[in-house]
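Exercise: predict the structure of this protein bound to zinc ion.
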Amino acid sequence: MSNSRNLHLGIEIRLREKSRKIEDENAVLRELMRQDMTAEPDFADQASTASSRDWNMIRYNRNIALLKDIAVALKAIDNDSYGTCEMCGEHISDRRLLAIPSALFCIECQEMVDRHPGEFGRTGLGDGMSAAV
Ligand SMILES: [Zn+2]
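Solution:
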């Protein structure tokens, strides 16, 4: 029992750390995008500026989505089911949870879900399953 508590504590600390790093990165990205918007157009530089601006935007948006996932995960951590695969009940690896904080399935079950899109709802045995009966 204390074991699962410790696992949660470990992942919680790492998710908070990750969240802080992402917020720092987004502050830098916001500044870069602001500079890009006010920068004088320069022919020699235009192409590279455009592509780096796109890249910044993509990264920024991805970070925002990740921050939302982390916020949801941090709320869910109080719940003992966090980090447990909804399909097989096995512990989802910390590595996977750090990459995808909102992961509901372990990697094996996720692969199965991915192979059968539409058969499983987002929470596992969802609407698709009962509709098929
Ligand atoms: Zn599983």
